[in-house]
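User: For a reading group we're discussing how well predicted structures match intuition. Take Protein ImuA. Before you show the prediction, I'll give you the sequence so everyone sees exactly what went in.
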Amino acid sequence: MTAPSHAAAPRAAEDLPFPAPAASGSAWPAAAGRQQALSALEQRYPGLWRAGQLGRAGGTAVCPTGYDALSAELPGGGWPAGGLTELLTTQGGAGEMRLLLPALRTLAGAGRRIALVAPPYLPNAMALAAAGLPARQCYWVRAPAEAARAAQQADMLWAAEQVLRSQAFGGVLVWLPAARPEALRRLQVLAQAGDAVAWALRPAAALRESSPAVLRLLLAPLPGNMLSITFHKRRGPVRDTPLLLRLDGMAAATRAAAWPVPAGAPAAATAGAPAGPEPLAQSSQLSSDAVLDRGAPAAPAPGRPAAQLA
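Assistant: Thanks. Here is the predicted 3D structure of Protein ImuA, as structure tokens, for the group to look at:
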């Protein structure tokens, strides 16, 4: 007895996004026909991209980087919204915050809120405001002391997941000294479900591990206010040489005050306070650390649900 065939029925020629083979029996159309077929596929499926060219945004928005040279190397011409970008640094303070400041200013200018999840240093409210980020639009999820970071890694990941799940933030930065690929996968899925621009900041040693992030960049500081950016993963061709980028001008005093004190320092610790989002309150004077008071969450943007972080 002949086994039933489960092969799909052939599609009609008019349903195919490419021209039918020539009558001579050739399996492939001529060069012009192939180009036409590829163009038709790209129009029908925006997520498709060729290995020799940068991928397109695929219908999703991007956030301008503020650096033309960098935007020209990124799919869609900016930081992907609804996707996870992984920034790996050879050392802390490599220039990652100055790299992201133009994008964060754009998001804040559009009325979106910014979440800083477990940064290694205390944010300074006045320094961030001087850089164009209003303190009341920035929320800080405090990190545990350095000695307890490894033990509370799951808590930091949970906090980042809740921030992304709330869809109440336009930009989310999360510092992850160590994270398993499945944890990053959850962040990627949650970012994809919304329209937040999400960055995971990790040590360069994490390059040995796989990652579901749509974009992976290695950052290394250089003399003269320069930053070396190596593209380890992007939707596009391989770039063999790093991109050398001059960072956005930022006053030296502001840079020094932006991240002055390691997180978990006694001056800012609150006994028994759970890790949660805290709006950055303005200090009465520029000091080594900002006054960080727990307050009521700001009202969400119109049409957006309030954050659910408890």
